[in-house]
Design brief:
The chain is built from 17 helices and 11 strands. The chain is α/β, with parallel strands linked by helices and 496 residues long. The longest helix is centred in the C-terminal third of the chain and has 48 residues.
Length: 496
């Protein structure tokens, strides 16, 4: 089995941050503005000579990932604010053995220190914690990152899925690659493919979504402790890098602690604890139970990370103080606030109780920077659009014509250059509002209830689409398998 990785080895600051060319729309918000934007975007798209890559964004040929199996480390020095396991060996930092094996790999606290004892983590998010977004977050204070959740069986059996779902880079460290699975052997086979390119492999025991229920993985293994144990135990015994686990709490503290201790005993070298139960899916409905996380931290002898209600750097520090944990993860809030961990803050959050959405134009600037990063790394359009909605969705509730354009209703194909032009148009409008009306917050054209209803519907649609992609991938694999079986049968019949 071969692995696709990107090999653009330039320093992370080699690509300059996107320049904000402020558009100057008239005060009268008519569709004429959007028509002009469409013309400009169309002209820009037609002027582009580089080919597109299907549903991927980023059309520079030099940015294409190499053929399978290539992975180089580069020769130019790359400045890093935090030492990482792959390149450190610095004073006082444990260094992973080379070559690492299942028996000599680092464990627990040595493993943790080898990564630089990272406090601020990009949580694993389906279709959202991809390489380009991880790099953006690292530029703004994140000190470790997880990949999106990867389906172990699809990763092993489908080269197409493998190429799209996992890309990395020499600067993309420390990195934990997360898999979902319920078969220890299949999980090990998948994990061995990524082991040379990461600091550790994480197992998802926390996903509460419908796709996890159907596939019998994630949080739906909380009822199958033997399976949870066997998955962790298998990787700990046979994988050359440490295994970690991301879990949820139960309704009662006693069971939560017993579960966490079992995960530790099975061989997990680090545990991330989400302070909500499997049925508490929406963060807006219930606060994360930091008290449960604090008790679990007291009981375990390995590093523990806290997850839940990390919407600002202030809340991240508060969580570390109240739970005693060694680090924190942020998921959905980080999508709305990619500079969440920046210190000093890139985006000031004045409302401590309701720090999101981000006011003013800061997230528009971050979106421009993210789009520039996607020129280096081929990123599926669905992921790029998802980030755009999260970063600037609040303003799109006011400028609904731009939202319609992003959703695909008219205009040229959504290449990176087209999306940069679209973002600059949004930046111009936001700054015009600030200049002429003195406000830094959007005024939605729809009621909060209607907007929430539409957001929930979009989330449901995205979940169904993700389930369909998984179903289609399995159907394609089954069809190929049946074709091979049929051909073998015909050959055997002809021979007889």
């Amino acid at each position: 089995h071969r692995l696709t990785t990107t090999v653009d080895l330039s320093a992370r600051d080699a690509v300059p941050r996107a320049t904000a060319h402020t558009a100057r729309p008239t005060a009268n918000r008519t569709h004429g503005v959007l028509r002009n934007l469409h013309r400009a975007m169309t002209a820009q798209a037609q002027a582009t000579t580089s080919p597109t890559h299907g549903a991927s964004v980023g059309n520079a040929a030099a940015c294409d990932p190499p053929a399978y199996g290539t992975y180089t480390t580069g020769t130019e020095p790359i400045a890093e604010s935090n030492p990482v396991a792959s390149t450190s060996g610095g004073k006082g930092l444990p260094t992973p053995p080379s070559p690492a094996t299942a028996t000599n790999k680092l464990t627990a606290w040595d493993f943790w220190r080898s990564m630089g004892s990272p406090k601020f983590h990009v949580a694993p998010m389906v279709d959202q914690s991809e390489l380009a977004f991880r790099e953006l977050c690292r530029r703004y204070g994140a000190t470790c990152a997880y990949t999106p959740m990867i389906h172990a069986r699809l990763f092993v059996e489908s080269p197409k899925y493998r190429e799209e779902i996992f890309t990395t880079h020499i600067t993309d460290r420390p990195l934990l690659v997360q898999f979902c699975a319920n078969d220890p052997d299949m999980l090990l086979e998948a994990a061995k493919l990524v082991a040379p390119h990461c600091d550790g492999v994480d197992i998802n025991f926390g996903c509460p979504q419908r796709i996890a229920k159907k596939g019998n993985y994630g949080a739906y293994l909380m009822d199958q402790w033997d399976v949870v144990h066997d998955l962790i135990y298998k990787l700990n015994k046979e994988l050359p890098v440490p295994v970690t686990a991301k879990i949820r709490v139960y309704d009662d503290l006693e069971t939560s602690i017993k579960y966490a201790k079992m995960v530790e005993a099975a061989g997990a070298q680090l545990v991330a604890v989400h302070g909500r139960t499997r049925t508490q899916k929406r963060a807006s409905d219930v606060r994360a139970n930091w008290a449960f996380i604090a008790e679990i931290k007291k009981q375990l002898k390995i590093p523990v990370l806290a997850n839940g209600d990390i919407r600002s750097l202030r809340e991240a520090r508060l969580c570390l103080e109240q739970t005693g944990c060694d680090g924190v993860l942020s998921a959905d809030p980080l999508l709305e606030h990619p500079s969440l961990f920046s210190d000093p803050p890139f985006a000031v959050q004045n409302d401590l109780q309701n720090p999101l959405p981000i006011q003013g134009d800061k997230n528009v600037l971050l979106l421009l920077e993210y789009l520039e990063i996607t020129k280096k790394y081929k990123t599926p359009l669905r992921m790029v659009k998802g980030h755009a909605h999260k970063m600037v969705g609040a303003w799109l509730a006011e400028f609904t014509d731009l939202r319609e354009f992003l959703n695909g209703h008219g205009g040229p194909p959504k290449t990176t250059d087209v999306l940069i032009a679209w973002t600059n148009e949004l930046l111009g409008r936001v700054r015009l509002v600030q200049r002429t009306e003195g406000r830094s917050h959007p005024i939605p054209k729809k009621s909060p209830r209607q907007a929430a209803r539409e957001e929930a519907e979009e989330a449901k649609t995205a979940a169904i689409a993700e389930q369909q992609r998984e179903d289609d991938a399995f159907a394609e694999l089954d069809a190929k398998r049946q074709k091979v079986t049929h051909a073998s049968h015909e050959t055997a019949t002809a021979a007889n």
